[in-house]
Amino acid sequence: MIRSALRLISLCLFFFSLPGLLFAQILVNVQGTVTDSTQAVVPGARVTLMDSNVTRTAVADKLGRFRLENVPEGSYELRIEARDFEAKSQRIVVSQDKAILAEVELKAAGVTEVITVTAEAIYTESQASSATKTDTPLRDIPQSIAVVNQELIRSQNALSMQDAVRNVSGVSVHLGEGRRDQVFIRGFSALNDNLVDGVRDDAPYYRDLCSLERIEVIKGPAAVLYGRGSSGGIVNRILKKPESEALAAELSTTFGSYGAKRFTADFSTAALNRTLLLRLTGAYEKSGSHRHAYYLDRYDVAPSVLWKPSSKTQVLYQLERLFDDRLPDRGVPSVNGRPADVEIGTYYGYPGDDFLRNKVTSHSLKAEHLFSRWTFRNVFHATRYDNLFSNTQPNGITISSGKTFVKRQQYNSDSDQDNYFNQTEALTNRSFAGMGHTLLLGAEYGFQRKDSVRFDGIASNVALIDPVLSRPTYSTVPANNNLFSGIVGAAYAQDQIDIANHWKATIGIRFDHYRQELNDRTLANRDLARTDRAWSPRAGLVYQPTGWASIYSSYSRSFQPSGEGLSLATNNEDLKPEVTQNYELGSKFDFLSGRISTNVAVFRLERTNVKTTDPLNPTKLVLVGEQKTDGVDLNFSGRITRGWNVYAGYALLSTRVVRSNTISSGVLTEGKRAAFIPLHSGNIWSTYSFNNGFGVGGGLIYNGDRFTGNDNTVTLPEYIRLDATAFYKHRHFDVVLNLRNVTHLTYYESAHNNSQIFPGAPINGALTLRYRW
Fold it and tell me: What is the pLDDT of residues 689-745, one digit of tens each?
């Protein structure tokens, strides 16, 4: 009751303040770049803007850029400090007529050699855009956010989304049927919570990283800006965009274990008097695996064009074309509650017929214009996903004549999905009632269509040890033949408030109208439809007692409709959405002049109205289930000393199926731990660069015991994997050696259910050669 009252009061205050915000005094952003005498950028520099009443602080990002928001008119002292440089102060006048751009050059402190600040990797980021749809310092956001940037990805030679997000505490990797990227965040599936530049990208496929600038992971519901889903959080890919006005290029090649070969390219330049910036990224990869019969053959091409006809207007077009052809792999079954004790490469499908082919074509057009006090932007995404999938997989074991056999099943599917999304937003900075406000108003319209047909075949049993893989019998009668369409219309508003020198708040709300229809084209012809309407609020408060500390609390909520995954069934058509709520307390600290960033969060994540079996009719579902996660996660990233960089995290996730009528493997799931989530997990990655260009590094990935199902009958044992790297970096080229699983550990990294468990690879390596100009 108290929670509901507080949320109602927050929403009323927000909407009553809107008229004043629209006509209040404008505030100004001060932004700029910090460089040294050689014009190299100085990342991590601490920037302070102050007078007798106002103090604003920021930390320069890896490109030396900083941004101070919501600054009233007046005369200020701008002070810049950085390790190994002399501090510099200058006077600036802030006027409401335009944003202030400051170019600051620092002088080296007591050294004669050239200070090189761009050669070493920097894993920490000072700001993110996913949580607020504005470029906001992480310390000002009342929510846990992890940023995996390109430097960290390259340092580890990460080639998949799973490789990259393993760095994020509270994220657990899932097998995803051996055909898609899938993770769990804070104990809940994020299968449909993939975004690209803030737009839904929810099809089941493997994403390539060649076009990626960074990954931002929001922990906790994010429906206030992105709509349905996001129980545990979202994964937002931020793509590379044209930036350089000069000709720049980079080529790289990687050769690794199991015949792995990968080639990437990245070109950028300017044209038409520098009003047109061009960029082209691409990759080709071909490899095998520690798993028998596995193959991968894919390419990704991503051109983009940025047109800047004036200082107030820019238009960005991006195209991405991906083709991915590989063998789907469901791993090995379990025996007596543990992964089967078989050779880790043992495959139970039928490689002669099994395949997975994905084609993705994505178009994005973003226009942005500064008009008086408002910035208007419109983003349109159109994406086509083509998926062909045929797989034979283990489905349990059986004993016959004293021998153990693996039961198998087979199905194949053909699905096409089209996503069309348009987002229109207006953004302004204002002063009202003695407080600064960054106001975001937005509307989204989306149409999704998925045409899918599935055939269920029959596959015979095979021996657990040394299986002879027989060809399945394929069906010609569709088990499912559906055309699903979903239409969403939404409006949202958000206000980031500078209450006083030490207090900030973020409040927002979104309303979604989601219409779902399924056309059943089988003989049963059971057409289904439903419409859901939902409000998604968020409120957070930040206290900043000093320029390097933030303490925050927040509340957020999301909804999960029956058609969230672009499908409906007769047993869920009449069920209203499940609801997830997140309560979080946390702190963020910056140390060593902003070079080190930490985030500690304590939270409770509750999901109610969970679908569970009707005890009176096992063919129906009822909304009486409940699941929750009580947890703590910690993140640490930054540059401890020159050349020494660290990225680390730890999570304690106590997950529980609080209420459920569902019985799995003869076991009532109520009271059990949620599947796939270890109680304890952690990671650390650290590199050290010497002054001569050479460097070394390594890291650990730890996962405690996990269950492969909510019945808790099969356990994946805990493991600690050790990885290492050695490198040489020059102005124009890099040579990087990466080794994974240095100790040659036998471990199991993910699963799909009790009968499909994926073994991790033994020791393997890759050598990367990179050249740029």
Answer: 998 999 999 999 999 999 999 999 999 999 999 999 999 998 899 999 999 999 999
From residue 663, alpha-carbon distances to 467, 612, 710 in Å are 31, 9, 9
Measure CA 365 to chain center.
21
**With the C-alpha atoms ordered 92, 98, 103, 104, is the resulting torsion angle positive or negative?**
positive
The mean per-residue pLDDT over the stretch 397-420 comes to 96
Task: Tell me the C-alpha distance between 609 and 559, whole Å.
Answer: 10
Which amino acid, one-letter code, is at 395?
N
Query: How far is the C-alpha of 611 from the C-alpha of 491, rounded, in Å?
Result: 28
- CA–CA gap between residue 192 and residue 235 (Å, rounded): 10
Query: What CA–CA distance (Å, rounded) separates 278 from 304?
Result: 6
CA distance 119 to 642: 11
Q: How far is the C-alpha of 57 from the C-alpha of 544, rounded, in Å?
A: 11
Cβ atoms within 10 Å, residue 565: 16
Angle 61-67-72 from CA coordinates, rounded to 5°: 160
Angstrom distance (rounded) from CA 496 to CA 29 = 14
- Taking residues 269-281, what's their average pLDDT? 90
**Torsion angle, CA of 191/193/194/198, rounded to 10 degrees?**
170
**Strand pairing of 55-59 and 503-520?**
unpaired
Question: Do 579 and 535 touch, CB atoms closer than 8 A?
Answer: no
Distance between CA atoms of 611 and 606, rounded to whole angstroms? Answer: 14
* Mean pLDDT (the chain, rounded): 90
Q: Following CA atoms 591, 597, 602, 607 in sequence, which dihedral angle do they give, to the nearest 10 degrees?
A: 160
Report, in this order, helix, strand and coil percent for the chain, each rounded to 5. 5, 60, 35
CA distances from 589 to 43, 634, 637, 711 (A): 18, 11, 11, 40
Cα–Cα nearest to 469, from 292, 328, 287, 336: 292
Helices (H), 604-740: none
Nearest to 577 by CA among 633, 546, 537, 534: 534
- Is the pLDDT confidence value at 514 over 80? yes
CA distance 654 to 673: 8
C-alpha–C-alpha distance, residues 768 and 262, integer Å: 9
CA-based radius of gyration for the chain: 26
CA atoms within 13 A on the CB side of 178: 29
Note whether 126 and 137 are within 8 A (CB). Answer: yes
Is pLDDT above 60 for 547? Answer: yes
Residues 307 and 315 sit within 8 Å (Cβ to Cβ): yes
Q: Please enumerate in sequence order all residues whose Cβ is within 8 A of that of 162, keeping only pairs 6 or more positions apart, or say none.
A: 173, 181, 183, 750
Residue-by-residue DSSP string for 348-384? -S-TTT-EEEEEEEEEEEEEEEEETTEEEEEEEEEEE
CA dist 93 and 613 (Å) reads: 66
CB 333 within 8 A of CB 757: yes
Cβ within 8 Å of residue 178, ≥6 positions away: 328, 329, 330, 331, 356, 391, 393, 752, 756, 758
- Phi then psi for residue 223, to 5 deg, are -65, -20
| Separation CA 104–CA 91 (nearest Å) | 12
| Cα–Cα distance, 106 to 80 (Å, whole number) | 8
Strand ranges in 127-240 using DSSP code E only, listed in sequence order: 127-128, 136-137, 145-149, 171-173, 183-185, 188-189, 194-196, 199-200, 212-219, 233-239
Helix (H, G, I), strand (E, B) or coil at 715: strand
Helix (H) / strand (E) element for 11: namely helix 2-22
